[in-house]
Amino acid sequence: MRASSERLPHRRWQAAFTIATVQPEESSPIILAEKLTKVYAAGRVPVTAVRGVSLAVERGEFVAIVGPSGSGKSTLFYLLGGLTQATEGRVVIDGVDFASLSDGERTRLRKHRIGFVFQKFNLLPTLSAMGNIEIAYAVSGRAKGKDGQPLDRAYLDHLCDLLSIQGRLEHRPSELSGGEQQRVAIARALITRPAIVLADEPTGNLDTKSSDAVLAMLLRSNRELGQTTLMITHNPEAASIASRILYMRDGEIVREEKGSRSWAVSPAALAV
Predict the structure, then answer these.
(1) pTM of the full predicted structure?
(2) pLDDT tens figures, 22-33
(3) Of 92, 98, 205, 251, which residue has the fewest beta carbons closer than 10 angstroms?
(4) 3-state SS of the chain?
């Protein structure tokens, strides 16, 4: 792979800016981490949360990262999503080296290429489910300017059918179950058609039945919409839906194995 400078056009970004990119080969990974280390200053004693982690995620892959509390998996999630900067090492997302970007440029990159799903749904309580999805598209900036692209209502309908939330779109978050709120959050993450979906403990606040439904939706969206999915979880059973599982402990990836991918998206899961 070779480094180059690329000026992104206005139609894809709120403002054009120059970034250092890595021109990927056809088979290059969409997520590439090289020797990532993150050290936090905790008083006089520095704490190393991530230690020299290297990994690659291929386009369209579903990867789960599993580890107990304090293993560094959430810090790795924030590093891969460009939400914090590495102390050492680098992250390349879809050919773009995060280390080369300013804070504003990194924010614009996240808006256009990454969809986030968090353990806490982070839905705006005063807006309906539909309003929460629409505002995510508005904030992305895709509809701005003379070449802006309005929200694709046909795609939105497809997402809502996929996630089984069509009949709940006019309800506010307080009127939805936990599983329904998380599915709205997934729709919000997918509405901008991101190349990558990063999910941090997406079932952490849900009961078993709702967890199964959300996992089924993540798997189905990965299969049917073709997004690359990386999920952080402490639950090995949840991780089993992935095609590949990475295990973390003490800030390092200590083991890798194939997931079962034995899940089928059942009507019962869709009905939760």
Answers:
(1) 0.80
(2) 344 456 899 999
(3) 205
(4) CEEEEEECCHHHCCCCCEEEEEECCCCCCCEEEEEEEEEEEECCEEEEEEEEEEEEECCCCEEEEECCCCCCHHHHHHHHCCCCCCCEEEEEECCEEHHHCCHHHHHHHHHHHEEEECCCCCCCCCCCHHHHHHHHHHHHCCCCCCCCCCCCHHHHHHHHHHCCCHHHCCCCHHHCCHHHHHHHHHHHHHCCCCCEEEEECCCCCCCHHHHHHHHHHHHHHHHHHCCEEEEEECCHHHHCCCCEEEEEECCEEEEEEECCCCCCCCHHHHCC
